[in-house]
Write a structure and sequence with these properties.
The strands form two sheets. Strands 2, 4, 5, 6, 9, 10 and 11 form a seven-stranded mixed beta sheet that branches. It contains no helices and eleven strands.
């Protein structure tokens, strides 16, 4: 049984930083593609940052480019989302997700249905 346990998040002022963590148990994440999604009220879950299984390719939504960074620590079996220069519009529920399938290409990373396991969600609130 794979579990993704998230930590971090909370309330921060605009311009501040937060780091979200996603620790896995039951399976190594070192060969999994990972994603961080956020859920805004009334919206669909959207990918803000993703990393392929090798860690050599990343994706960032335009709204977070230059401010957010996804990384992984294979020794700790943990994936991180570093969020800098936070804005009130970054306020959302954030989820980490793992795609453990072996795929020939990393193409469907924006589709939530691609991911097999999800964290419990972490609220990030940015005050103006």
């Amino acid at each position: 049984q794979v579990q993704l346990v998230q930590s971090g998040g909370g309330l921060v002022q605009a311009g501040g930083s937060l780091r979200l963590s996603c620790a896995a148990s039951g399976r190594t994440l070192s060969s999994s593609a990972m994603g961080w999604f956020r859920l805004d009220p009334g919206e669909e879950r959207a990918l803000v940052a993703g990393m392929d299984w090798s860690g050599s390719r990343t994706y960032y939504a335009d709204s977070v480019k230059g401010r957010f960074a996804i990384s992984r620590d294979n020794a700790k079996n943990t994936v991180y989302l570093q969020m800098n220069s936070l804005k009130p519009e970054d306020t959302a529920l954030y989820y980490c997700a793992a795609d453990v399938e072996v795929r020939p290409q990393w193409t469907d990373y924006q589709d939530p249905a691609t991911y097999d396991y999800w964290g419990q969600g972490t609220q990030v609130t940015v005050s103006s």
